[in-house]
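Mods, move this if it's the wrong board.
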Amino acid sequence: MGFVKVCRRDQVPQGEGLRVEHGGEQVALFDVNGELFATADQCTHGAWSLSEGGYLDGDVVECSLHMGKFCVRTGKVKSPPPCQPLKVYPVRVEQSGDVLVDFEAGYLTP
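Not the wrong board. Structure tokens:
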């Protein structure tokens, strides 16, 4: 399958997340100083959406449920209570402005 178009570049807000979905898998897109990153949308601690209500500070998203923090570049936990990292996904922006995510190539950073 490879990369799948999920939205347009101008739909991803600066400093916030945007949830996209494909095949039942929900991913959050984050714009960090013009660079896009894609992670699992659900916090690994409280099953809470990171794109809806999460707070992005630089490349760290804070879950609004229990204030756990994750790096959106790597998925690694930056602050508990979460113990498990987020799955991260390759993301690509085409010259046309289309944003594509490779849902099959999602991985956990060791």
